[in-house]
């Protein structure tokens, strides 16, 4: 590292081949938090060397997802100053020069095998590629004949490679189990396995964070570092994210991406909070974290080895906690985007105050508020409620009795409604629920509402409240005949 003080430098290096899946988001988050916790640098690098799989819109999705999650990078595409942009397709000359260095030192060799020889052009043949044994004369003859070639890593034929991972400890793999992997393809583009090693060194990356699935490839990376005479970074491999049945959580298998979860009504900050808990333990009972909280407390040594099970129930609970932590104005701004146009005839701020304490996902909002402007057909069975001591007949008696009280009420707001109904309850000797249940049912015709009877009546207004209570009376009377 340059200078006397080592600055922690981490990177997130996505390929623009799809949308931000949950594993990618967690890798980005942990790399970001490691940098922030240590006053370091967080780098974005676009690894777009797999030209056939690149999706143009995926690049925009990467930038949008990082911004939405609040993971602001210090160096990389679009950043002023620093050493960016870090886009691998713009760095081909760098990889070519380093591949030639390996050829000169014996750490790599040219492979002229074609599809007919290996089953796939530029593919990984079994263990030791036959071209590694070509003489200089044979190599020059093939080059002069215009034969195309790839550059492969020359893996030692014996011995083993040992490395230490911050999560999984010391790991040793026999070199005989490693392939002579392709470093530079015949079209001049590097493979991921080569470009990421070169870039991590040139960008002074101190901590390499990636998924557990890369553990088996790490010895090949270390052999490259050794061939170049470079220091090896600190490795932090992250445990798998799995579903309840133990299978891998994967966008490819239909599991939602980060963008999908946002569209499903989850707040970005709640998703980030939950993703942080997939494989990391804060060391206490806390589960609610803002990004700023995580920047202060995250530590690599608290990352778990075991797979982390993704739970929609847990994510939904955390999302509800984040919704309730918003200010009233913040929630109202979010909720308005989900309010149908028909709701504009009511005081939506009052509705938002009711919805905030009861909303788990933003996408639940449209259905939850629909009864305000579109009263559903009222099933008489809704008036039956054991806890409130209500039956359809008792509900009918209550509505008939309370209607004149409400008709005579001059000031129509929640406080006035509460006072009037408390006086009515006391005078008639009813239990509170016995009165409030049938009123709330008549006003909503649904089992669960975002507020109580007086709150709904306040929002609906006197005229609409009385109309709905009269319709409820008529419904119950017809059912009793």
Automatic annotation (TrEMBL):
It is found in: Cytoplasm. Its EC number is 6.1.1.17. It catalyses: tRNA(Glu) + L-glutamate + ATP = L-glutamyl-tRNA(Glu) + AMP + diphosphate. One of its GO terms (biological process) is glutamyl-tRNA aminoacylation. Its main location: cytoplasm. Residues 331-473 form the Aminoacyl-tRNA synthetase class I anticodon-binding domain. Residues 8-317 form the Glutamyl/glutaminyl-tRNA synthetase class Ib catalytic domain. It is an enzyme of class 6 (ligase). One of its GO terms (molecular function) is zinc ion binding. A motif ('HIGH' region) lies at residues 14-24. ATP binds at residue 251. Transmembrane segments: none annotated. A motif ('KMSKS' region) lies at residues 248-252. It comes from the Bacteria. GO terms for cellular component: cytoplasm. Keywords: Aminoacyl-tRNA synthetase, ATP-binding, Cytoplasm, Ligase, Metal-binding, Nucleotide-binding, Protein biosynthesis, Zinc. Monomer. Catalyzes the attachment of glutamate to tRNA(Glu) in a two-step reaction: glutamate is first activated by ATP to form Glu-AMP and then transferred to the acceptor end of tRNA(Glu). Belongs to the class-I aminoacyl-tRNA synthetase family. Glutamate--tRNA ligase type 1 subfamily. This is Glutamate--tRNA ligase. It comes from Candidatus Brevifilum fermentans. The gene is gltX.
């Amino acid at each position: 590292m340059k200078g006397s003080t080592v600055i922690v430098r981490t990177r997130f290096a996505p390929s623009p081949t799809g949308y931000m899946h949950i594993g990618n988001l967690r890798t980005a988050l942990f790399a970001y938090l490691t940098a922030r916790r240590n006053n370091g640098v967080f780098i974005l690098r676009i690894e777009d060397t797999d030209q056939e799989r690149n999706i143009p819109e995926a690049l925009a999705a990467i930038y949008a997802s990082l911004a939405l999650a609040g993971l602001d990078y210090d160096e990389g595409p679009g950043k002023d100053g620093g050493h960016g942009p870090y886009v691998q397709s713009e760095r081909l000359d760098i990889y070519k020069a380093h591949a030639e260095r390996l050829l000169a030192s014996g750490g790599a060799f040219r492979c002229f095998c074609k599809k007919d020889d290996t089953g796939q052009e530029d593919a990984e043949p079994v263990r030791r590629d036959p071209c590694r044994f070509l003489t200089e004369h044979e190599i020059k003859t093939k080059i002069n004949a215009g034969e195309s070639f790839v550059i492969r890593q020359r893996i030692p034929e014996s011995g083993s490679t040992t490395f230490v991972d911050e999560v999984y400890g010391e790991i040793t793999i026999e070199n005989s189990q490693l392939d002579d992997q392709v470093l530079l393809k015949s079209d001049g583009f590097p493979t991921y396995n080569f470009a990421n090693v070169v870039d991590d060194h040139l960008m002074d990356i101190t901590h390499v964070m990636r998924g557990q699935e890369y553990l088996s490839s790490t010895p090949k990376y270390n052999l490259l570092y050794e061939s170049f005479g470079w220091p090896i970074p600190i490795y932090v491999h992250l445990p798998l994210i799995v579903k309840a049945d133990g299978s891998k959580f994967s966008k490819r298998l239909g599991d939602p991406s980060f963008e999908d979860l946002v569209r499903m009504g989850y707040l970005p900050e709640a998703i980030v909070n939950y993703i942080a808990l997939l494989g990391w333990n804060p060391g206490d009972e806390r589960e609610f974290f803002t990004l700023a909280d995580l920047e202060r407390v995250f530590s690599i040594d608290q990352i778990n080895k075991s797979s982390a099970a993704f739970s929609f129930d847990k994510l939904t609970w955390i999302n509800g906690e984040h919704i309730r932590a918003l200010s009233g104005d913040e929630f109202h701004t979010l909720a308005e985007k989900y309010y149908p146009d028909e709701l504009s005839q009511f005081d939506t701020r009052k509705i938002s105050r009711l919805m905030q304490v009861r909303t788990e996902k933003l996408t639940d909002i449209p259905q939850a508020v629909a009864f305000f402007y579109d009263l559903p057909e009222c099933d008489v069975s809704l008036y039956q409620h054991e806890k409130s001591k209500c039956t359809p007949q008792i509900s009918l008696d209550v509505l008939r009795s309370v209607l004149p009280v409400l008709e005579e009420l001059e000031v129509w707001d929640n406080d006035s409604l509460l006072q009037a109904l408390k006086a009515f309850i006391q005078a008639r000797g009813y239990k509170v629920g016995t009165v409030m249940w049938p009123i709330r049912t008549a006003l909503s015709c649904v089992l669960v509402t975002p507020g109580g009877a007086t709150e709904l009546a306040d929002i609906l207004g006197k005229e609409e409240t009385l109309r709905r209570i009269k319709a409820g009376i008529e419904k119950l009377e017809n059912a009793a005949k």
